[in-house]
Amino acid sequence: MVKVILVDIEGTISSISFVKEVMFPYSKEKLENFLKENFNRPEIKSIISEIEKLEGKKLELDEVVNILKKWIDEDKKITPLKELQGYIWEEGFKSGELKAPIFEDAYKKLKEWKDEGYKVYIYSSGSVKAQKLFFSHSKYGNVLNLFDGHFDTKIGNKKDKNSYIKIAKEIGVKPEEILFLSDSLEEVIAGKEAGLNVIKVSREGETEWINNLDINQIKEFSELSI
Ligand SMILES: [Mg+2]
Q1: CA 7 / ligand 1 centre spacing (Å)
Q2: What is the C-alpha to C-alpha distance for residues 67 and 210, in angstroms, rounded to an integer?
Q3: CA 179 to chain centre
Q4: Percent of the chain's residues with pLDDT above 70
Q5: Which residues make Cβ contacts (< 8 Å) with residue 85, sequence separation at least 6?
Q6: CATH number for position 200
Q7: Based on the domain organization, do 35 and 142 belong to the same domain?
Q8: 61 lies in which domain range?
Q9: How close is the Cα of 206 to the center of ligand 1, in Å?
Q10: How far apart are the CA of 187 and the centre of ligand 1, in A?
Q11: Is the pLDDT of residue 226 over 80?
């Protein structure tokens, strides 16, 4: 029996284009100034030393900027990049320059699940910090109360089945008590391998419908019966 619903963000409850066409360019555009203004903050310093560790050498600020811009262009899911973007987006959301879109059908279903007593968790490659910002500044206002918790890549890669086993353990339920929804086939397969119930979300204009898929597939959350 499903007790917990685990959802991805991008392409699943929010549009890929907002992240790709609004949030990513925003973080790239503000990156240099943000680092120049904030490099002395302890949390930013520790992000920079994480990047230096990954690159295996000490880096000048300009080099850090270039590496980060390259990672953004390549859509790299690297924790220090995600954390730094979180700080930059924080400024954007708080100032009202950024406002998070959520698909209406997903928003309705999330509210229903909450009312019906399901526990709802987010699993996204965006940092937990960025996730919380996103949901506290959405087009429906602050909707953080719809969620019982958040996971990001700190628990593991979304394409690795072990991440889903860890998530189940952390929540305190069996894998088969979780329903996981994502637009990524690789993520859905990883979740399935871990023993979760899974649904592939293939929204029109977001990700393509896959024919002959042996996994449940939906276009919109309104099709869900739970
Ligand atoms: Mg996704």
Answers
A1: 9
A2: 35
A3: 17
A4: 100
A5: 23, 24, 27, 72, 126, 127, 130
A6: 3.40.50.1000
A7: no
A8: 19-95
A9: 9
A10: 8
A11: no
Task: Kindly state whether residues 193 and 83 are assigned to the same domain.
Answer: no
Torsion region of 93: left, alpha or beta (phi above 0 gives left; psi -120 to 50 gives alpha): alpha
Instruction: Give the residue from 95, 118, 144 where a domain finishes.
Output: 95
Residue 165 sits in the same domain as residue 210:
yes
CATH number at residue 52: 1.10.720
Confidence of residue 118 (pLDDT cuts 50, 70, 90): very high
How many angstroms is it from 124 CA to the middle of ligand 1? 7
CA of 26 to the centre of ligand 1 (A): 19
pLDDT confidence bin for 75, thresholds 50/70/90: confident
Same domain for 89 and 120, yes or no, is: no
> What was the pLDDT predicted at 111?
97
Q: What is the per-residue pLDDT across 9-23, written as a single tens digit (0 to 9) for each?
A: 999 999 998 988 998
Per residue in 45-64, pLDDT (tens digit) is: 999 999 999 999 999 999 99
Total number of domains in the chain: 2
**pTM for this model (two decimals):** 0.81
Residue 77 predicted with pLDDT over 90? no
